[in-house]
Amino acid sequence: MGTKTQPQLAKENERRIRANDKEFNAQFKYHNNYIKTSKYSLFTFLPFNLLEQFQRLANFYFLCLLVLQLIPAISSLTPVTTAIPLIGVLTLTAVKDAYDDIQRHLSDSQVNNRKSKTLRNGKLVEAKWSEVQVGDVIRLDNNQFVAADTLLLSTSEPNGLCFIETAELDGETNLKAKQCLTETIELGDRHDALWNFNGEIICERPNNLLNKFDGTLIWRSQRFALDNEKILLRGCVLRNTQWCYGVVVFAGVDTKLMQNSGKTQFKSTGVDRLLNFIIIGIVLFLVSICALFAIGCAVWEGLIGQHFQLYLPWERIIPKDYIPTGATVIGLLVFFSYAIVLNTVVPISLYVSVEVIRFVQSFLINWDEEMYYATTNTYAKARTTTLNEELGQIQYIFSDKTGTLTQNIMTFNKCSINGRSYGDVIDLRTGELIEITEQQTIFQNSNTNNRPSPAGGAASAPPAAPPPIILVHTAEVHAKKSALVVTTSASSPGEAQVSSRPDLEHSAPPLDAVEKRPALKHVRYSAPSRSQEDDPGGVSPRMGLAPPIANEERRSSGGFKRSGAGYMQRQLSRTSSCDKALQTVDFSANPHHESDFRWYDRTLLDAVRSDEEHSHVFFRLLALCHTVMAETVDGKLEYQAQSPDEAALVAAARNFGFVFRTRTPNSITIEVMGQLEEYELLNILDFNNVRKRMSVILRRGDSMVLYCKGADNVIYDRLHGGQEDLKARTQDHLNKFAGEGLRTLALAERRLTEQYYNDWRSRQQEAALSMDSREQKLNEIYEEIESEMQLVGVTAIEDKLQDGVPKSIANLQNAGIKIWVLTGDKQETAINIGYSCQLLTDELADVFIVDGNSVEEVEKQLRQFKESIKIYNRFRPGGFDPFDRLNSDSNMDPLSVTMTQTSAFMQETNLPPTPPPPPAISVVTFSAECNDLFGDEKRSEGGGTASIVVDENTGFALVVNGHSLVHCLSPELETKFLDIASQCKAVICCRVTPLQKALVVELIKRAKNAVTLAIGDGANDVSMIKAAHIGVGISGQEGLQAVLSSDYSIAQFRYLERLLLVHGRWSYYRMCKFLRYFFYKNFAFTLCHCWYSLFCGFSAQTVFDPMFISVYNLFYTSLPVLALGVFEQDVSDKNSVEFPRLYTPGLKSELFNIREFIYSVLHGAFTSLVLFLIPYGVYKDGVSENGYIVSDHMTLGAVVATILIVDNTAQISLYTSYWTVVNHVTIWGSLVWYFVLDYFYNYVIGGPYVGSLTQAMKDLTFWVTMLITVMALVAPVLAYKFYLLDVHPSLSDKIRQRSLKKIHSRASSNVRRTASSRRGRRSVRSGYAFAHQEGFGRLITSGKIMHKLPQDFAFPLGLGTKKTQVLHNNLNSADGSKTNNISGHNMVNNNTNLRQNQNQNHSSMADIRADGRGTGGDDGRGSVGTDDMSPRAPCQDLDTINL
Questions:
Q1: Could you give the C-alpha distances from 738 to 416, 434, 831, 1111, in angstroms and in order?
Q2: CB 289 within 8 A of CB 1168
Q3: Catalytic residue among 170, 214, 254, 400
Q4: Can you give the pTM of this predicted structure?
């Protein structure tokens, strides 16, 4: 008793399978291979579908109403009024559900009836997939789907190798290699041997982990370890392999594919949740009204109605003996009668209309050509139709970095071998390091008629025509105070000459005294832009020096680069050919080189070709330590890599002469400088997120070596002693590479002895066969051999930003959305990408870095940061939230924002001297001037206005490391972390795992009650995408798993800007406007019955014809409001992007909330009152010209109904801002349709109200009554609209006014982000990137950046500004000088004030006019601030820029 049988124990703890033994496997009752994803059958569809539909509250509510209407004693309406719309909705939904389920049936049938070759009684027979059972041995042919999760036994390829495609599992189309046990390879395709195979498999229970399998094979009294590399999963396709055999381990619903096909979490929008709350409120309101009218009816019947029973007899069920009892019963019945009559306040058509609008809006997203990516032929796709308006209310964006912000296309950029750095290009004349980019543009001279010929060069040009200018994006030499102009002469093309500016040397020490190491020169050739074609002179009207660059994601704007070194410009002769000095290294001598591979440092190739030992070890390691598969396509060698960065490393080795040729399960063949080398592959120590490294153990001849690559901190901890000098030099290179935003990876090797390896191998096999803590034991074994290694070098890979990322992030932040980047990258790379994409800017007061290793350390850091924020808020001008101030100040025009950087404590020149100011903090002010856009001449008179100080671009950023994030998410620190993070402009979480990404999103959802959006492109982003309110997948280089799990898919990050600011805002705006009008028209319609109740003894008599009540929402008013919800827009898509502040109302739910709903209800109530009382007053005792009485009930109902339709038409015409053909057809067509349908119903079908409207329309009284009523209803609405437009115009109102005035340029109102002055820099110790997915050598990408880390400040807690003095120089021609002399009076005063306040540690200002030309002084130079120290902090010079 109590003893469990073997099957019970197996079922609980493990799974036992014996090949070709049905009786043994049958005792465990494993599932067969039949699958069913459909929900209904032919007999269960109707009851199950209706049951499912009536679980929705709205459908159940209307079903109850229908039941009540079937009771004659309480219903004054025919059941048709509710039955028609309810049946229509149920039918439409049922048809949709039936279609979906039929598709599932067809899919199931197709899959279950696929043919599979199965061994039965020693013969290979064809069987359906549904007939395959656990333990069967099956055969797979090339290009055939795998029927079930199968243990690979033998293949047609040498050494038991086969290739599969996993597109149905993870969306990845690149091939993956699988390998069977060497002991089972001998089975081959001999059916007798395979039928006699009786191995017993002990493995884990079914689960949904695609990349993990633990099991053991017991065969011939031996135990063999099984892992994921030996399993073929259902849904995979066999490729490049003639055949293979395997034994079924999991079948049907137990397969990992089916285990991963769970139900997707249902997501609803904020509008949906508010709508549900409002519906409950409306129901309670109706119950109250019905109760009030029931009491009124009972009173009326008791006092008055009892005397009219001859004319109004009571129903038979009403007791007539005792009047109070009878009146009470009547009142109770009338309660239900009014519940039926007034149910149209919440018509069922509301839900239908909402779904139709969302459905059409989804197609508008899918059809948007502006979000089409031609490179991959990919459109944006709305994968759900229920979340569109939520796109207009996003408060937090959580973004992955790799492949989301960056391109995830890797290029081998630099490396360090044996302590020597390679990849830098040095100008031999100046000794400067030059950074190269691919694009180059030569800008033409302004005098096109006097261009110097290519042969004559610049020297032959006439004096009136200066040489053409080549605009170099930035050219910076790391001198602290010297601005240089780099020129090339025509006589020596390609040689750069560096000369100091004479007008700046007074403040700059000699260059060599400042920095003796080679300076870094950043060169960026910019693509040509339209503005350059329009202005052949190359002089921009905005910047004054150079044409604006079309590539908006550049790292600085215009011809200026703001930095500690000042503004640089390079003037190059048009005839000079810089490409000659910057030619790529020629690899054509290598027959396997790639034509698109770019490398500029020839010294590395020379080292390789001279057989330098260390470089050979370096590239041999890259060619051997990886998981790449090689194949020959059309005679050309191609690689199939698990990740782009691993492909980049192998490709780099290939181009340098170390070509990876082929691999088998036991060998790797490479070609070194034309000679083949074959290595025996002994072990692959796989990568995972814990190890952060991968290794291979190889043997060639008598030598045995372990090659390892991984994160630098992991590799450094496993090096043997005596390498301190090499480690130090390599660490310097690592820091330098990371400072440039490159992905870094450390390489090491270890020579092994045969005896040591054999001993280690036996213990490794023992750990691999363990069913208890196998992974932990293997990691310990791996740790043992991956030690005492020799450092080989480091690699640096570049992953550039996607196009448009900086602009998109800037616009989204200006819209009020907070952006968090959650990445697995190291801190250094993550920060650089933050500056590169302008998520972080120089205007930030500080960047907080949380990197504590314990709860105490993290808590201390958070406490210090909170104190810093408090001090900053205490000393900055104005203690208010800039975002709220900007939106609440009616005198503030967000369109005419002028951005200024200035000291936080600026003093007026007419004020007496004050004590030393608090710490200088960089803030941003927004001017209240509106004259640029709206011609407000009164404000601009007198020279200027006072600025409203709003620190929009200042503030803080937070960078959190993964190990610190664990503590930040703990219950004790969660609140403190949120408090600080919510006050930061940007947050970057680095070194985070996929699970931590989801936890961060859940934290913000729960604690901040904010609407969140997560965007990513890889499998590691799926959990984050599913956790957020909105999940956006990018179809990139990492497969389609993110897209398959997302709600919306786009091809590039920049399309997120349009998805939110255009489609999201429009969807929210349309839905809110639709709901406001919908509730208005239905309250105006329904409450007419309430006013009529006062005149009919609360008898639940209806004003309108029952048929009119039935079709009012279905035919008369549905189409105009649908057109409003689909096509309405307040401003164009262009303006929506140009003015991101338009997005603000969605963040605060301003367009539809309880207040707006109550306003719609009150408006509807007022309309219903006027609609009823005016016609009632006119027709009460009315007599026609012929003496006929027109005061009958039917005439009044027909007149009120007609005026209601006309008013609805007038109101929606006022509601509509954007008129299309569809709007015109639906609005005016519905008005005509009313009269057509009324005539058809009354005259053709023979309705009870026949002739009522026709007779009324013959009388002038009807037309006058309609005119007066409609005017009375429309006039207040028009007056209120004009009042708002004139006194409290919204931002969209102002934009429309501007459009009407045909002002097409935004002038200076466009807020542009200041280009960052940070450059590639020497960094401190940091962690480095590693791949997320186990089994791959993929790194976490980063893009190139030239920014510096935040400085440490003398002020306590790290508070202070990081600005350095910038010297503005006017280098323009005579036209520019004239402009300087005409500069505004106030700007001169500003400069004067600053000069007078320099002794009080105020910043200097270098003012720039709105058109970009400097006004700093008569000589074109800005003033220079002092370096005096404040008592509490260094008050560094700050500059003020009016864009």
A1: 13, 17, 10, 68
A2: no
A3: 400
A4: 0.66
